[in-house]
């Protein structure tokens, strides 16, 4: 069984977590910045904020704790908004391991131009 951490529980991240779990041999942890999303998923198995009317499979669990989301993960899917990537990856760095496979599904590009 593969363990997948999906970092970002918006509509896109929730949908990818659902697709990853469909094979039946993946355990998926969905990390949400917002506590109310975790509570909604725990209570009703639905991300009522970003993807209402789409129940999550039993193999998807939600957490608000990055350490918990990454614990034992073999695959890490980044689905956070691009403007949060740097800060979130800096925070995640302490729990990232060399064997983890990273997949970027982050949408949007944020570029900063520097003029000397």
Describe the structure.
- The protein has 116 residues and is α/β, with parallel strands linked by helices.
- The protein has a single domain, classed as NAD(P)-binding Rossmann-like Domain (Rossmann fold, 3-Layer(aba) Sandwich), CATH 3.40.50.
- It contains four helices and seven strands; from the N terminus they run E-H-E-H-E-E-E-H-E-H-E.
- It has a five-stranded parallel β-sheet. A two-stranded antiparallel ribbon has the order 3-4.
- The radius of gyration is 14 Å and the shape is globular.
- The termini are far apart.
Architecture blueprint of SSEs:
Blueprint: E1 2-7, H1 11-21, E2 26-31, H2 35-44, E3 46-47, E4 51-55, E5 60-63, H3 66-70, E6 75-78, H4 85-92, E7 101-104
Parallel strand pairs: 1-2, 1-6, 2-5, 6-7
Antiparallel strand pairs: 3-4
Task: Give a short synopsis of this structure.
This protein is α/β, with parallel strands linked by helices and 116 residues long. The radius of gyration is 14 Å and the shape is globular.
Task: Spell out the key features of this protein.
116 residues, alpha/beta, Rossmann fold, five-stranded parallel sheet, two-stranded antiparallel ribbon, 27% strand
* Helix segment tally: 4
Instruction: Give the amount of beta strand, in percent.
Output: 25-35%
Cross-sheet strand order for the largest sheet: 5-2-1-6-7
Q: According to CATH, what is the topology?
A: Rossmann fold
- What helical percentage do the residues reach? 25-40%
Q: Ranges with pLDDT <50 over ≥5 residues? A: none
Terminal-residue CA separation? 51 Å
Largest sheet report: 5 strands, parallel
Instruction: Please identify the top-level CATH class.
Output: Alpha Beta
CATH architecture: 3-Layer(aba) Sandwich
Shape: globular
Number of strands: 7
Alpha-beta content class = alpha/beta
Radius of gyration: 14 Å
Number of domains: 1
CATH H-level homologous superfamily name: NAD(P)-binding Rossmann-like Domain
Would you tell me the overall average pLDDT?
92
Run of helices and strands: EHEHEEEHEHE
